[in-house]
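hey
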């Protein structure tokens, strides 16, 4: 019986990881102009995920391996359903919105399979940056986690309004101050899902990652007093428990989350040392409301897509010029093939800038 379960694990795990890679590719390249070509590319992918999942469900697993079964089957069904929904998204009256909904399955699958990382090396490697996947010393450290580390949700299950999701590296050393990255989701998103856009890098480079969830359906852009103090309190709670480096605290976000990074990050009492708005809107009034001393030499890293259909790149270019004129130390990245979606492939460069 154990042998049969091990065979299922060996069959199902790589199919799940391949499906997750497909969803990452689809998410990165989602754009109205090339949507049909993207769907065709995903449809061409050959997979035995359905067969492996069905074999797992029909097997009488040993009781001691039931937790592994639950992790793998949940991850498999989430990726399968996500890809299936993506393949028919172009039949929806709003195909891009339908595709965004379909891709939500990625986070559910990632959270389901992540507990298998200490037990299955392919899973552990999947949640590392490519350059460190053969680092046996790092893998050994991460696969023997310290108590209290890993992924947790505060204030309720992942994605609870007003709560936050947290990742503390499994090899956390209390004597070493850890950089902090606070990553804010886009409109209608949540921190429980957005956490997985950054976890691979946090796990590789050893920083604490916090992904808050807005109190409402998106960030309180016109009333920052709603979400702003809540984020400050979250950071204070994390810093009270973990050794956070006060000189390396990055506030970043996607779309509305990026705009809110401007709103919070340009105020005089902001505690963050670096800002990185991504695919964000920017209004000149933000400069008028900003603290002049705060802006002087403030490190800001802007990422925007040349093909962004929601917030045209002119907004980001205007932000670069206005912030640079106000004295900020601005790095600007306009990505040629990027639409209005999260560019995970930009995380590495952003972190090189932040952690240097």
């Amino acid at each position: 019986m154990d042998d049969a379960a091990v065979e299922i694990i060996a069959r199902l795990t790589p199919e799940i990881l391949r499906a997750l890679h497909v969803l990452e590719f689809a998410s990165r390249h989602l754009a109205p102009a090339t949507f049909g070509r993207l769907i065709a590319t995903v449809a061409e992918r050959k997979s035995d995920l359905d067969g492996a999942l069905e074999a797992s469900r029909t097997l009488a697993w040993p009781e001691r391996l039931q937790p592994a079964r639950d992790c793998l089957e949940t991850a498999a069904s989430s990726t399968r359903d996500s890809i299936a929904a993506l393949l028919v998204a172009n039949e929806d009256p709003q195909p891009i919105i339908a595709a965004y909904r379909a891709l939500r399955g990625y986070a559910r699958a990632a959270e389901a399979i992540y507990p298998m990382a200490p037990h299955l090396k392919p899973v552990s490697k999947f949640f590392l940056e490519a350059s460190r996947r053969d680092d046996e010393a790092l893998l050994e450290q991460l696969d023997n986690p310290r108590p209290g580390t890993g992924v947790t949700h505060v204030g309720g299950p992942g994605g609870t309004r007003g709560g936050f999701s947290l990742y503390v590296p499994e090899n956390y050393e209390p004597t070493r101050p850890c950089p902090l990255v606070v990553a804010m989701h886009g409109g209608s998103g949540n921190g429980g899902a957005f956490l997985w856009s950054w976890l691979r890098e946090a796990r590789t480079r050893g920083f604490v990652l916090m992904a808050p969830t807005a109190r409402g359906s998106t960030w309180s852009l016109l009333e920052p007093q709603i979400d702003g103090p809540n984020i400050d309190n979250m950071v204070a709670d994390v810093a009270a428990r973990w050794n956070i480096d006060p000189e390396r605290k990055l506030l970043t976000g996607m779309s509305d989350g990026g705009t809110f990074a401007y709103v919070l990050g340009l105020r005089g009492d902001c505690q963050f040392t670096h800002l990185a708005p991504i695919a964000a809107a920017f209004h000149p009034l933000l400069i008028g409301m900003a603290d002049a001393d705060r802006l002087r030499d403030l490190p800001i890293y802007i990422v925007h897509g040349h093909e962004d259909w929601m917030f045209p790149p002119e907004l980001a270019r205007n932000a670069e010029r206005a912030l640079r004129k106000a004295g900020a130390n601005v790095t600007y990245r306009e990505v040629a093939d990027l639409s209005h979606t999260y560019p995970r492939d930009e995380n590495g460069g952003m972190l090189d800038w932040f952690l240097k």
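Residues 94 and 100 are 10 Å apart (CA to CA). The radius of gyration is 21 Å.
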